[in-house]
Amino acid sequence: MHSSLVRRLSQERELEINVWSYSSRKLLHSIETGHSANIFCTKFVPETSDELVVSGAGDAEVRLFNLSRFSGRGLDDNAITPSALYQCHTGRVKKLAVEVGNPHVVWSASEDGTLRQHDFRQGSSCPPAGSSHQECRNILLDLRCGAKRSLADPPKQTLSLKSCDISSTRPHLLLVGGSDAFARLYDRRMLPPLTSCQKRMSPPPCVNYFCPLHLSEHGRSSLHLTHVTFSPNGEEVLLSYSGEHVYLMDVNHAGGRAMRYTVGDASKIMSFTPTLNGLELQPPIHDFLQTNIRVRGEVATGLGKCRMLVEIARNSLEEGKHPYYGIEACNEVLEGHLSGIGPMLRHECLCIRAALLLKRKWKNDAQMAIRDCYNARRIDSSSFRAHLYMSEALEQLCKYKEALDFAIAAQCLDPSNSVMAEKVENIKKHIAAAETEKNNKANDGGSRSEPRTGRVLSLSDIIYRSEANSDASQDGPRSEREDSDYDEEVEVDFHTSVPGDEGRDVEANFLHGSLNVRIHRRGDSARETVDANGSSGSPSSSSQNDRIPYQPETVIDMKQRYVGHCNVGTDIKQASFLGQRGDYIASGSDDGRWFIWEKQTGRLIKMLLGDEAGNVISIVNCVQCHPFDCVVATSGIDNTIKIWTPSASVPTIVSGGAAGPDTADVLEAMESNQKKLSRNREHSLSYELLERFHMHEFSEGSLRPFECAQS
């Protein structure tokens, strides 16, 4: 968003780009783009006086427009020929990136697995993808063999890119995210020369991987990123996941700021190790969570406030109040005043927060409780509560064997506790029941392995099985791949065809494409790809690479999590830094609201109504902060964008009036969003299919003016 302009992408059949002046609230230009599918992204090209606008769309095209050509025209005369047209992508273009101070180049990230570099000085057009003479050498990143199911798995499948960003402070740094759990940071100076699409290349080495530890080994095919972005100073990155939360990470590991891990660290922190003379013998862990466990001297400043907050959290736990309040109090202590508290107060706060997280049971709360228990045990290896809550967290994740180890350890620390004895026996019963179920499945294995003739799986069967396996609540039973009820796992990819690939004489209202179904047995490293025509294959790779053992990467872990919103309905939902220093985090949500959190503590600051499409579907997708003015723009699936300022001329449109919603309303909304996150992705699949059908049901009437609201 520039100083005087803001973009609006129309969802009408004309597929226009509307350029407004947010100060005067006037429509300046309405461009008939010529795109034949949804426009997902636009950018003003830097250093062009806001005259050049570039767009990327679901038709796999990137188009450049010169607004100066509208000089002297009326608003109704809005058809201009694009200054540049790039048709080399084979998948939807989901994100564009520009470099500050560079008016000549734009980068496009596509679901075809490539990030391309378009230099306006080298050519203004390229042949359509699939043409016999298509030799555009503009692929900067070839990630068509770059997706990873988990940290331990080598990259094999196409990484469908959903988002990209270029650092404003160090423009050689490039961040991308797509159809797996890992964001990747590249240094453009270290990348190989631009290539063509004729041959798939091995993924180039990246500077850093980013992924929360608890998401790195899930192996869920549906887990993917919808947005990645740099902070204003370029020192942090923000990741937004579909069906997940928003996470903050440090870019650099220098000085021990970033928390890093590698394969096996997730299981290490959930495993109990033997003790000698009362001291736990913990194996060395790859500097995981080191920054959270540094013991520093008590500092008087803020110590009284921290003790008061811990007391509030303790009362919340003991009096049965909603855990949210106590968790917020603990977050303030542990994230906002860590340097001012001593180890004993830190241990107390970690144990209380773990207990509250286990009581709240929002998505991944059990995983966060494990982190707190691990840190508490590093402060006090004989902590009864740390072992007790670790056992409860592992129980919630159905890791009963590990839970039993910690329950027995807690029982040894407090032998007179009758509750612990009962808990140990209950966990043993769970383990016995799981073993019985496993044996029963083994006995039925013969009938399962027989050829399944005479039955053809419908698409609904495949989708139900795939989504049920991968997106059952991960804090409940059968959340892990090894607990799947099926001997085979199924992945489904649906790709629409790009106009120009198969001729243009097809009927415009019909969706054409290919259905890719991958069926593989658990434990098989190879995956067979079967397309609609019956052919099969796998991503190309050299035999030499196959002989080299795969060495999993080291990954930078999260340092803060932002919860309360819901991101399952669309795969273009943004999370953004607010303010010149990026002190606040904002994200849209599938409930028609957008949320603002304090970056350092994760505390929810504001919840605002940003979309009024209707009672059935209300979604806020885009939240963007002005680079230096005190203005935020949001848009959803209704017909307006909204401009938010601290002093608007109309009242804010949140429940409760200018004072904001009641606390009860906030909790109700967040609880509802958490329930949506824990369900399977049936609704999100429907939304994505609507996107692929170009959403023709949107009204063709003119867009309403801006709606301004006070934040």
Automatic annotation (TrEMBL):
It comes from Citrus sinensis. This is Protein ALTERED SEED GERMINATION 2.
